[in-house]
């Protein structure tokens, strides 16, 4: 199998679902209090794979920038296979620059940057230009092949960032809470990963600058390795709360009225999960 470095993941994914305890009543009560027009999809798990709370966890949702986690994983797979190198330099071209999130679009043409820097900016500030460069280098088809090899049937990278023609043609990047949690479990466990790759990915996710969602209401100093995503119709966050009892959680909100409303919902759910399971 082409992607042998991740094969042991399936051991983690075959663990039984736990019986929900009374802690879930608090999260359930909060969800029941929300406007019925809102759509919330979420999954909270232990690192072992044991499910702590689930709601629409298998639902296919637009991934927004959370698709950058699969891109990051394929990037590090190619780093480990020595197809690419962290210190490899890339000269930014005018055609690479796209709008939306990120600072690379404002830099001079032919400015050079290491691939490690591009990967870090893709996660830290969700830089779309850095993301598109990395997609071109690793190959969109290879990202999707990795997802297939991992047994993920929903998560797919179907377009570049800010590709409005592809969007109009109906192409969308998609995932589900359950599948993103599986990817985060690989990163946390380090299954068949080198220590340096595991630490690099975790550190990049820890540096995510958007703190308004999962970290938003957690106690000061709580470490969260995560990646957010935003479109006009979906707001999501997927991450690992690295407390004494780590938990993995992915939360997506659709049909919200304002971004602030969606952020509040995600932050509240994350805080309830933290108090119930990670504290």
TrEMBL record:
GO-annotated biological processes: beta-lactam antibiotic catabolic process; response to antibiotic
Pfam families from the UniProt entry: Beta-lactamase2
Protein name (record): beta-lactamase
Enzyme class: hydrolase
InterPro entries from the UniProt entry: Beta-lactam/transpept-like, Beta-lactam_cat, Beta-lactam_class-A
Family to which this protein belongs: Belongs to the class-A beta-lactamase family.
The Beta-lactamase class A catalytic domain, residue ranges: 44-253
Single GO term (MF): beta-lactamase activity
EC code: 3.5.2.6
Catalysed reaction, written as an equation: a beta-lactam + H2O = a substituted beta-amino acid
Organism per entry: Rhodonellum psychrophilum GCM71 = DSM 17998
């Amino acid at each position: 199998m082409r992607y042998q470095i991740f094969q042991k993941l399936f051991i983690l994914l075959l663990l039984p679902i736990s019986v929900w305890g009374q802690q879930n009543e608090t999260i359930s009560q909060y969800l029941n209090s929300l406007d019925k027009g809102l759509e919330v999809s979420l999954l909270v798990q232990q690192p072992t794979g044991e499910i702590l709370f689930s709601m629409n966890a298998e639902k296919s949702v637009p991934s927004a920038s959370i698709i950058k986690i699969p891109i990051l994983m394929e990037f590090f797979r190619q780093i480990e296979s020595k197809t690419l190198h962290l210190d490899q330099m890339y000269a930014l071209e005018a055609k690479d620059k796209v709008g939306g999130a990120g600072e690379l679009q404002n830099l001079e043409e032919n400015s050079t940057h290491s691939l490690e820097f591009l990967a870090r900016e893709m996660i830290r500030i969700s830089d779309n230009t850095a993301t598109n460069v990395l997609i071109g280098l690793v190959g969109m088809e290879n990202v999707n092949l990795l997802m297939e090899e991992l047994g993920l049937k929903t998560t797919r990278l179907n377009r570049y960032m800010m590709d409005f023609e592809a969007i109009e043609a109906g192409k969308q990047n998609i995932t589900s809470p359950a599948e993103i949690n599986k990817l985060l479990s690989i990163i946390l466990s380090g299954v068949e990963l080198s220590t340096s790759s595991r630490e690099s990915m975790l550190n990049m996710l820890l540096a995510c600058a958007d703190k308004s969602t999962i970290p938003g209401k957690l106690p000061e100093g709580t470490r969260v390795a995560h990646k957010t995503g935003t479109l006009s119709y979906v707001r999501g966050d997927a991450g690992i709360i690295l407390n004494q009892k780590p938990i993995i959680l992915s939360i997506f909100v659709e049909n919200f009225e304002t971004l602030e409303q969606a952020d509040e919902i995600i932050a509240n759910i994350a805080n309830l999960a933290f108090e119930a399971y990670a504290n």
